C-alpha cells in the first residue's frame, strides 16, 4: 500500500464520523451527510495521489463534503426554495440549543441509537454513519442480504425524518437511560464479533470487535465520567485480549480453562484492569452491569492458571450482578462459577432450574453436559452434548463440543 493510500485509509478511520456528524448538524439530513462524505472520500482517492495529502486531511474532507452537499441541495432546489438554499450555503441559521454535552459525533451517536428505532436498524445505522462500514460489509458481518441492510438504513433515516427525531444530545436527566441504549448497540456489535452466530463465517470477527472497541473509545472520550461507558470498554478490552487464544489452529473453539494464557494480549489486559480499578475507586457510586462484568473478567485475566482463579470473588460479583440483571443467562454463568466453588452437584441443581427459560440455548446444554461429565453420568452427558451440538451457532463451537462428547467413555 502506498503512502497516499495509507493516508486515505487512516483519514477514513479517523475522520469519517467527524465529517458525517458535522454535515448532519449543518444540513439536518443524514442522507445528504452520508452521500456528501462518501463523495469527499472518493475525491480524496482521486486527487491526493496527484496533489499530495493535505496538511489537515479532516478539514479538507469536511470542506469538500460541504461543497458536495451544497451542490446536491442546489440541484434538488433548482426550481424552488431558494431561501433555504441560501441558508444552507451561508450557514446563517442560529445554532440549535445544546444538550448536556456539545459534540457533533455524540449527537450523531444518540440519533443513530434512538429508542424509536428497531435494534437492527440502530446497529446498521451506527455502523454506517459512525463506523463508515459499507452496506456490503455490514451485510457480511450479520449474514443478511445487502438489500436487507439497505432497507434497514433507509427506513431508519425515514423514521428519523418523519418522527422529527432531534439531532442533539439528550438533556442531563435523560442522559443515563439514553447512554445505556447506545452501549447496548455497541455490546451487540462486539458480541457478534466475539463469537459469530452464523455457521458460514469466521467464528471470531476481529473487524467487528475492533469497530465496537473504537466506537466505545470514542464515547469514552466524549463521556469520560460515565462509569458504564468505562465498564463496557474494560469488558471489551479484557475479552478482546484473549482473542488469539480462543480458536485453535484446527478451527476449534478453545474454552477459558484450556487457553494458552501466554498468548493473551498483555497491553489490553493492563488497560482493562486499570479501567476496572478506576471504577472501583469511584467513591459512593454503585457499579453498573458492564462494570461488574468487567470486574469478573478482571478476576479471570488476573489468574496465571485456571486453578489460581479466585472463584469466591467471581461468585460474589455474580451475586451483585443478579440484583441488576436477573436474566437466566447471568444465572447460568453464575452456576458455572459455583461449580468451581461448591462442586458440580450444587451447580447442576441451579442449572436444571433454568431449563424452561434456556432450553433453546446451546450454552445451557453444554454446561449441563460438562457438569454431568464431572459427576460421572456419561450417558446423560452425551445426550446433553448432542443437544448443544444441534443448537451451536458456528463451526468452532461445534468442533469443541464434538471433541468433548467423543472423549466420554
Structure description:
It is a single chain. By secondary structure, the protein is mostly helical. Among the domains are: 3-90; 103-119 and 134-219, no CATH class. Helix content is 69%, strand content 0%. The protein contains 20 helices and no strands. Helix 15 (328-342) runs antiparallel to helix 16 and helix 18 (362-374) packs antiparallel against helix 19 (378-391). The relative contact order is 0.06.
Summarize the topology.
Blueprint: H1 3-27, H2 30-51, H3 57-76, H4 82-90, H5 104-112, H6 119-129, H7 135-142, H8 146-162, H9 175-194, H10 206-222, H11 227-240, H12 266-280, H13 289-302, H14 311-324, H15 328-342, H16 344-352, H17 355-358, H18 362-374, H19 378-391, H20 395-406
Could you give a quick summary of the protein structure above?
By secondary structure, the chain is mainly alpha-helical. The chain contains 20 helices and no strands.
- Give Rg in angstroms: 24 Å
State the assembly state of the protein chains. single chain
Average pLDDT works out at 88
Give the number of DSSP strands.
0
- Alpha plus pi helix count: 20
Question: Could you name the ranges where pLDDT drops below 50 across 5 or more consecutive residues?
Answer: 86-101
- Strand content is under 5%
Distance between the termini: 54 Å
SSE topology string: HHHHHHHHHHHHHHHHHHHH
Helix vs. strand class: mainly alpha
Helix content: 55-70%
Largest sheet: none
Q: Overall 3D geometry?
A: elongated
Amino acid at each position: 500500500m502506498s503512502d497516499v493510500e495509507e493516508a486515505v485509509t487512516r483519514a477514513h478511520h479517523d475522520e469519517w464520523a467527524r465529517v458525517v456528524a458535522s454535515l448532519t448538524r449543518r444540513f439536518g439530513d443524514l442522507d445528504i451527510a452520508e452521500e456528501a462524505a462518501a463523495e469527499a472520500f472518493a475525491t480524496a482517492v482521486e486527487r491526493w495521489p496527484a496533489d499530495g495529502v493535505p496538511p489537515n486531511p479532516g478539514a479538507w474532507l469536511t470542506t469538500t463534503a460541504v461543497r458536495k452537499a451544497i451542490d446536491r441541495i442546489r440541484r434538488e432546489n433548482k426550481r424552488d426554495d431558494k431561501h433555504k438554499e441560501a441558508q444552507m450555503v451561508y450557514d446563517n441559521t442560529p445554532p440549535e440549543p445544546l444538550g448536556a454535552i456539545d459534540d457533533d459525533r455524540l449527537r450523531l451517536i444518540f440519533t443513530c441509537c434512538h429508542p424509536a428505532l428497531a435494534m437492527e436498524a440502530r446497529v446498521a445505522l451506527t455502523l454506517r454513519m459512525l463506523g463508515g462500514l459499507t452496506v456490503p460489509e455490514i451485510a457480511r458481518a450479520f449474514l443478511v442480504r445487502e438489500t436487507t441492510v439497505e432497507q434497514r438504513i433507509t427506513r431508519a433515516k425515514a423514521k428519523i425524518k418523519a418522527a422529527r427525531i432531534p439531532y442533539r444530545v439528550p438533556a442531563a436527566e435523560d442522559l443515563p437511560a439514553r447512554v445505556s441504549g447506545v452501549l447496548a448497540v455497541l455490546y451487540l456489535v462486539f458480541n457478534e464479533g466475539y463469537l459469530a452466530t452464523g455457521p458460514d463465517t469466521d467464528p471470531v470477527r476481529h473487524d467487528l470487535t475492533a469497530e465496537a472497541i473504537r466506537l466505545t473509545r470514542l464515547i469514552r472520550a466524549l463521556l469520560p465520567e460515565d462509569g458504564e461507558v468505562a465498564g463496557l470498554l474494560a469488558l471489551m478490552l479484557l475479552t478482546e485480549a484473549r482473542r488469539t487464544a480462543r480458536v485453535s489452529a484446527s478451527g476449534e473453539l478453545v474454552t477459558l480453562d484450556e487457553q494458552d494464557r501466554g498468548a493473551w494480549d498483555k497491553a489490553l489486559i493492563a488497560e482493562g484492569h486499570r479501567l476496572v480499578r478506576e471504577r472501583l475507586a469511584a467513591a459512593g457510586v454503585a457499579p453498573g452491569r458492564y462494570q461488574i462484568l468487567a470486574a469478573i473478567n478482571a478476576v479471570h485475566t488476573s489468574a496465571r492458571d485456571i486453578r489460581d482463579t479466585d472463584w469466591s470473588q467471581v461468585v460474589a460479583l455474580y451475586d451483585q450482578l443478579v440484583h441488576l440483571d436477573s436474566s437466566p443467562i447471568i444465572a447460568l454463568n453464575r452456576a458455572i462459577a459455583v461449580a468451581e466453588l461448591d462442586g458440580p452437584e450444587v451447580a447442576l441443581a441451579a442449572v436444571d432450574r433454568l431449563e424452561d427459560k434456556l432450553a433453546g440455548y446451546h450454552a445451557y446444554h453444554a454446561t449441563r453436559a460438562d457438569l454431568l461429565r464431572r459427576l460421572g453420568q456419561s450417558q446423560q452427558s452425551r445426550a446433553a452434548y448432542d443437544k448443544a451440538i444441534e443448537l451451536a451457532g458456528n463451526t468452532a463451537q461445534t468442533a469443541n463440543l464434538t471433541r468433548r462428547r467423543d472423549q466420554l467413555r
